């Protein structure tokens, strides 16, 4: 529960939260097929998004949801991979962080980096007890920032609508108690 009498602090421009992490992929990062494991990239994405969220929030921010992650191209051992993140949108206590991952191929370093993954994550700013706290607003600066802000709103509207539709569906069916170990 957040205290509604406490006003959120003044905003920060989108560029304030921008963070890039880079690393070279090694043999311990690969899957059975010899390309970089999706889980390795997911951790990398979560790390850079967490850094952007914490910078914008000015404190601890936890991952509430990974809304979407798309792997566009395989990543190989030796590739120099850069993950770029920024806060696209802020709500009351939550933030959407957009991440773009690009790779420089080790054997064609003169070519432009290629996009290998994109992701959108929701972070929530929390206090020392883990309770949500108001986040300062993000202030989109450029046309691109404004487009990303609006698209983040669309994703949030869809997420909330989907949750409501599933709750309504469950409310309209008398299902027996499901004790299966799969996702609810
Ligand atoms: C994230 C967490 C703090 C939210 O707590 P909560 O009591 O459910 O919070 P609320 O219902 O008040 O929601 C707080 C905000 O989070 C958003 N939120 C909560 N669950 C969400 C979800 N599954 N997807 C997207 N947004 C979500 C809400 O929309 C709300 O946003 P707003 O304030 O901008 O409108 C809590 O669920 C938690 O601690 N989860 C574990 C986090 C964690 O361990 N992450 C991995 C390691 S960092």
Automatic annotation (TrEMBL):
Listed Pfam families: 4HBT
Domain spans labelled HotDog ACOT-type: 15-129
InterPro entries assigned: Cytosol_ACT, HOTDOG_ACOT, HotDog_dom_sf, Thioestr_dom
CDD domains: BFIT_BACH
Segment forming the signal sequence: none
Chain segments carrying region Disordered: 160-184
Single GO molecular function: fatty acyl-CoA hydrolase activity
Keyword list, A-Z: Hydrolase
Domain of life: Bacteria
Enzyme Commission code(s) on record: 3.1.2.20
Composition bias, Basic and acidic residues: 165-176
Sequence similarity: Belongs to the acyl coenzyme A hydrolase family.
Protein name: Acyl-CoA thioesterase
Highest classification ranks of the organism: Bacteria, Bacillati, Actinomycetota, Actinomycetes, Micromonosporales
């Amino acid at each position: 529960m957040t205290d509604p009498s406490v006003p959120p602090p003044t905003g920060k421009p989108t560029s304030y939260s921008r963070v890039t992490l880079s690393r070279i992929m090694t043999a311990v990062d690969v899957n059975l097929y010899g390309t970089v494991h999706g889980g390795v990239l997911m951790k990398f994405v979560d790390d850079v998004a967490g850094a952007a969220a914490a910078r914008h929030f000015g404190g601890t921010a936890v991952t509430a949801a990974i809304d979407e992650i798309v792997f566009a191209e395989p990543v190989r051992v030796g590739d120099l991979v850069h993950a770029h993140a920024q806060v696209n949108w802020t709500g009351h206590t939550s933030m959407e962080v957009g991440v773009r991952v690009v790779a420089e191929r080790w054997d064609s370093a003169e070519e432009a980096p290629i996009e290998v993954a994109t992701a959108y994550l929701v972070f929530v700013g929390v206090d020392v007890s883990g309770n949500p706290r108001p986040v300062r607003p993000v202030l989109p600066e450029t046309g691109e920032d404004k487009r990303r802000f609006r698209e983040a709103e669309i994703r949030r509207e869809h997420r909330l609508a989907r949750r409501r539709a599933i709750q309504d569906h469950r409310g309209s069916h008398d299902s027996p108690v499901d004790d299966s170990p799969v996702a609810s």
